[in-house]
Amino acid sequence: MAVSLAGSAARAAELVPFRVGQASPANTYLAIWMARDAGFYEANGLRLDVVQLSGGRDIADAFAAGRIDAMHIGLSSVIRANANGADLRAFGSLSNIIRFALFGKPGVKTAADLKGGVIGISSTGSESDATITIALKQLGMTRADVTIKELGTKRLEPLLQSAVTASALNEPDRGSAYAAGLTALVDLAPQQILWLFSGLVARRDALGDKRDAMLRFLKATIEGNRLAISDEARAKAVLKKEMGIDDPKIIDIGYQDFKAQTPRNAELSREAAQANIDLIAAPGASHAPADYIDETLGAALQTIGFYDQMNLKYPGK
Q: CA of 289: how far to CAs of 78, 135, 213, in Å?
C-alpha cells in the first residue's frame, strides 16, 4: 500500500498545473466539467484548477497577473481587451451562436414597457452587454432608449424582484425565467445567430510558449464535450452538481440547449468571430479574425488524427 501511495503521489507531482477561468456556472462550461469529472485532464498530464472570475472585464488583468492560463469567455471580451493593449486569442469554441434571451421583469411584456427602463448585464464588454444591442434592434430600439446596469453573474433574482426592468439570461437562468412565467421580449437562442459566444481563450504568446499544455487542455476538453454529447445521463448529473440545480426540467432544458449548440470538436467559426468583430471592434481597430482567433491548435489535432480517434471512440455522436 505504501508503494502504491508513493507511486500515486509521484504521478500527481508530475502533472502540469493548468488554470482555467470560469465567469459563472453555465451549460456552455459542460465540456470542461465533464472532462474534469472523467479524469481527462489528468490523463493528458494536466492538473486542472478552475479559477472564479467576475466576468469578461477582468480577463486581461487575470492573464497579466498569471492567475489563469486559459479562459472560457466570449470573443467580445477578447476584442475589448485587445483594444486596451492585451494580446489574446480564442483557440477553441464551445458555442458559435448567441444563447441569450432578454426577459422583462414581472409585468413587462412589450418594447413599450421596456423603453426608459434599466437592463441588467454581467459586466461592460461581456457577451450579455454586446448582444443587448442586437436584441434592442429587433425591438426597434437602441441603447439610447434604456439604461444599462452591471449586475454581475447573478441576474435572475434581481429581475424577479423587479430591481431592473429587463435582463439578458442564458442557461440555466433562461429556463428558470420561462418557468417563473417571465416574458422573453426577444429570445435570440432559437434564432441561431452566428456569434463566438463561448470561446476558449489564452494569451497569444502562451499559444507558442506553452503550446504542448494548450494542446493537452484542448484535447481533454474536446473529449469531455464528446462524452457529454454521448452520455446524457452522466452529463445531466454533472450539470446538476456543478450548477446546484435540482429541478430535472431545468437540467433537461440546459442539457438539450448544450447539445444543440456545442461544436463537437470545439471548433472555431470564422463567420461567428467576424460577427463579433464587426459589431464590437472600433472603426480604427483591426477587423481581421486572425487578430482575435488562433486556428492552429485545432489544425494540429486534425493533422495527428485526434478527431478520427474521437469519432471511433464516440461513434455517431
A: 11, 24, 24
Residue 182 in grid coordinates: 417571465
Number of independent structural domains in the chain: 2
Taking the C-alpha atoms of residue 265 and residue 285, their distance in angstroms, rounded to an integer, is 30
C-alpha–C-alpha distance, residues 68 and 229, integer Å: 27
Q: Region 277-300: what's the mean pLDDT?
A: 95
Average confidence score pLDDT of the chain: 92
Please calculate the CA angle 305-307-311 and round it to the nearest 5 degrees: 115
Integer Cα distance of 216 and 198 in angstroms: 19
Question: Would you say how long the chain is, in residues?
Answer: 317
- How far is 189 from 103, CA to CA, in rounded Å? 13
Q: Give the CATH number for residue 183.
A: 3.40.190.10
Q: Is the dihedral of CA 147, 151, 157, 163 positive or negative?
A: negative
What is the CB neighbour count within 10 angstroms for residue 38? 18
- Cβ proximity of 73 and 101 under 8 Å: no
Residues 90 and 207 in one domain: yes
Angstrom CA distances, 290 to 44, 69, 89, 170, stand at: 28, 20, 8, 28
CA dihedral 214, 215, 217, 218 (to 10 degrees): 120
C-alpha cell read off for 106: 414581472
Domain limits for position 83: 2-97+195-313
**Dist. CA 278–CA 310, nearest whole Å:** 34
pLDDT 10s digits, 167-223: 999 999 999 999 999 999 999 999 999 999 999 999 999 999 999 999 999 999 999
Residues 84 and 229 grouped into a single domain: yes
